[in-house]
Amino acid sequence: VQLQASGGGLAQAGGSLIVSCTVSGGVFSRYGVGWFRQVAGKDRSYVGSITSNGGHTYYTNSVKGRFTISRDNAKNTVYLQMNSLKPEDTAVYYCAAENPETRLYDYWGQGTLVTVSS
What we know:
Oligomer: single chain
Order of helices and strands: EEEEEEEEEEE
Number of helices: 0
Structural class: mainly beta
Distance between the termini: 37 Å
Helix content: under 10%
Radius of gyration: 13 Å
Shape: globular
């Protein structure tokens, strides 16, 4: 299973960005997908996730009400819509697919950089 994240870039505080994660090499509809982010020098942290059928989404408190995760199973793609961006959202964003056998995020994309200027 391969994941490709794209769509990062530069935004101003208060602005919006959308990042995408395309999954290949497996049956996409079997996988829950999570988003994580990492700031240089810090551990990777959980941002949010969506279940395999898209029926449920979960978010860490710091992004609730600002970020929205969705998926299009016809396009094998998961989206992270980021609104009301803050400088502290600056990070490399990673998507990961949950292995339905292990229930762990065993498959990871390469990351895409999001920079929010004040």
